[in-house]
Amino acid sequence: MGKLTATSPIYDRELVDVGKVGYCSRQKRVRFALSYILAIVDKTMTQNVYDRSDFFEGYSKLSRSTEGLDGAAEWPSMRALLPNLHDLNIVDLGCGFGWFCRWAVEQGVASALGIDVSENMLARARNATSNPRIDYVQQDLERLDLPLASFDLAYSSLALHYVANLAGLLFTLRRSLRPGGYLVMSIEHPIYMAPTRADWLFDERGRRTWPVDSYLVEGPRTTDWLVQGVIKQHRTIGTTLNHLIRCGFVVAHVEEWGPTDEQIATHPDWEEARDRPMFLLIAAQR
Ligand SMILES: C[S@@+](CC[C@H](N)C(=O)[O-])C[C@H]1O[C@@H](n2cnc3c(N)ncnc32)[C@H](O)[C@@H]1O
User: Fold this and answer.
1) Residues with Cβ < 8 Å from 138, sequence gap 6 or more?
2) Which of 69, 224, 231, 243 is most deeply buried (CB count within 10 A of its CB)?
3) Same domain, 37 and 72
4) Does any ligand 1 atom lie closer than 6 A to the CB of residue 194?
5) Residue 26: which domain range?
6) How far is it, in rounded angstroms, from Cα 105 to Cα 87?
7) How many domains does the chain contain in total?
8) Same structural domain for residues 35 and 122?
């Protein structure tokens, strides 16, 4: 089990709850302690679905996997949030196949560290990379360990919505950034993530609506994407922004990504994002 982060409000609350147990039998106390430990383990267990062969096979066929950054609809908007990368030390959280690290080196970064929990993803990233300025390391973002004040940019594309302990991660991240350092991140949009049954509904006229329910009920969402039972962590926009603010980040830009007319002309299916945003992009600074 990884160390608990003192800053995580979730764990603060649980520690207070433990205090409410009061006097009870030894057996009860042991049982309570066990269930308490299991609850924490459960909260911090990482599914690592990208290491499932059936999931990985499906993921490898997506356009963002075969075409890289240009195959990702939101990439032009993410790129627009980046500072000048020349000579920066950067870290990519949930680096996947390492497309961003390789692109960043082409832009002149001094070093790029790609972090991912999946051996499958890291093996593919290493195979595709020959530049010695890039390093890939296997780490779980739930219990990330990074050197202090060492990076100028932390980048993360579509990985942080898998992380339950976002507050702890942001705390670690902020300390690993140099003063003035940047955080540029994207997650699945909470409107996309929130529903308990995340799929379009069609009325008799064929008009589609997205069934947002349970928006304020934060926590795990189990969805069927590529395989059954993929677990993501739903948080409201407010919660994500407040985590950033409480960790001491200055939020500079928040974008609920939607396609441009030009993008829709070449990818008509992306238009559905105008009815139901799929990505949330955030830029912040230490
Ligand atoms: C949708 S992919 C995005 C990959 C890449 N950033 C991109 O945009 O192409 C999500 C990545 O996050 C990684 N990931 C998910 N949970 C993680 C965790 N707890 N720790 C480290 N990596 C994680 C996955 O293994 C996967 O490579």
Assistant:
1) 115, 116, 117, 119, 122
2) 243
3) no
4) no
5) 9-44
6) 9
7) 2
8) no
- Calpha distance 111→103 (Å, rounded): 12
Among 53, 78, 91, 116, which residue has the most ligand 1 atoms within 8 Å of its CB, making it the best to mutate?
116
Ligand 1 contacts CB of residue 159 (under 6 A)? yes
Q: Cα–Cα distance between 152 and 102 in angstroms, integer? A: 17
Q: For residue 3, tell me if it sits in a domain.
A: no
13: left (phi over 0), alpha (psi -120 to 50) or beta: alpha
Report whether residue 184 contacts ligand 1, using a CB cutoff of 6 Å: no
Q: Are residues 84 and 40 in the same domain?
A: no
pTM: 0.86
Task: Render pLDDT for 145-171 as a digit per residue (tens, 0 to 9).
Answer: 999 999 999 999 999 999 999 999 999
DSSP string, 78-93: HHHT----TT-EEEEE
Residues 24 and 74 in one domain: no
